[in-house]
């Protein structure tokens, strides 16, 4: 059985789709999978079971990237195509069953829309796939002893970024209650990401700087070693929630009603103001500290 799974260009949306993939993996144990996604998201699927190929879709003028995808897929008889991009490409392929999500933004949580495509209620939670080598490397980078707190101070545009000094203030307040806490700063590749992260690194001098050179799955393995994640609305935030660790997502210029992190221990803190257009500067340190402490307490009670 051959399944073509067309998912997002953006990392965060691709992460939200992994729960649906996990459902298909369990539902069809004899199936193999071809993933079509953007280059940024491609690494997310590196260790996915029964993945035979990832097709990286590089956006081209006049939507020619869809023609490229059709050319790469036309030689296969697909038993199923799941298309989260709302394209027509599957209608020009030999496909048994099609599940095509309607395009455009809609009210409500993105993860719910994804689950609805296969009639799943509740929607399946995202998952991450790492390998033994990545998990061993994570242990060496984040050894036992400290309670590692991951900070995600970057985002895909500056309007979504909480001020650096407030990340430092939150971490320092949390460490007062738990001196074993130590910060680890996570961010993506590129000079822009490094510059944004540096603003927090400069204010938390004992933080571990991961350097922005790790793959998506290497970062996921690191997150699995952490006690807590606090970060802006970003792909990194969704990755943290998918690993199952306590995750606090910070929202102002984006809608938590659509893109809240999805995981067993995920919470959001929203800046006051117009929904989806509230200045991040309005989001208070006290609210983030309170949410983080409450989340950790809930997790501790559940564990015991």
From TrEMBL:
PANTHER family: LIPOPOLYSACCHARIDE 1,2-N-ACETYLGLUCOSAMINETRANSFERASE-RELATED, TETRAACYLDISACCHARIDE 4'-KINASE-RELATED. The keyword Phosphoprotein does not apply. It comes from the Bacteria. This is Glycosyltransferase family 9 protein. It holds the Pfam family Glyco_transf_9. InterPro entries: Glyco_trans_9, LPS_LOS_Heptosyltrfase. Keywords: Glycosyltransferase, Transferase.
């Amino acid at each position: 059985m051959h399944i073509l799974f067309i998912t997002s260009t953006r990392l965060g949306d691709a992460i939200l789709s992994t729960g649906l993939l996990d459902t298909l993996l369990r539902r069809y144990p004899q199936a193999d999978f071809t993933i079509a996604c953007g280059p940024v998201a491609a690494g997310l699927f590196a260790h996915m079971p029964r993945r035979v190929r990832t097709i990286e879709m590089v956006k081209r003028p006049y939507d020619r990237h869809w023609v490229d995808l059709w050319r790469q897929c036309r030689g296969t008889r697909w038993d199923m195509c799941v298309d989260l991009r709302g394209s027509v490409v599957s209608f020009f392929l030999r496909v048994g069953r099609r599940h095509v999500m309607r395009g455009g933004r809609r009210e409500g949580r993105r993860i719910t829309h994804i689950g609805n495509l296969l009639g799943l209620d509740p929607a399946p939670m995202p998952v991450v796939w790492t390998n033994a080598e990545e998990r061993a490397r994570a242990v060496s980078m984040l050894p036992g002893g400290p309670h590692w707190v991951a900070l995600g101070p970057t985002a895909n545009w500056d309007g979504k970024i909480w001020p650096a000094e407030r990340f430092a203030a939150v971490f320092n307040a949390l460490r007062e209650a738990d001196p074993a806490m130590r910060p680890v700063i996570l961010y993506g590749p590129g000079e822009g990401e490094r510059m944004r992260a540096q603003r927090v690194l400069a204010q938390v001098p004992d933080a571990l700087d991961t350097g922005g050179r790790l793959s998506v799955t290497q970062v996921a393995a690191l997150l699995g070693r952490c006690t807590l994640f606090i970060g802006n609305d970003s792909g990194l935030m969704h990755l943290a929630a998918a690993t199952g660790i306590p995750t606090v997502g910070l929202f102002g210029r984006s809608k938590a009603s659509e893109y809240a992190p999805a995981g067993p221990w995920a919470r959001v803190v929203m800046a006051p103001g117009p929904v989806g257009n509230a200045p991040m500067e309005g989001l208070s340190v006290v609210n983030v500290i309170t949410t983080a402490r409450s989340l950790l307490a809930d997790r501790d009670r559940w564990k015991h």
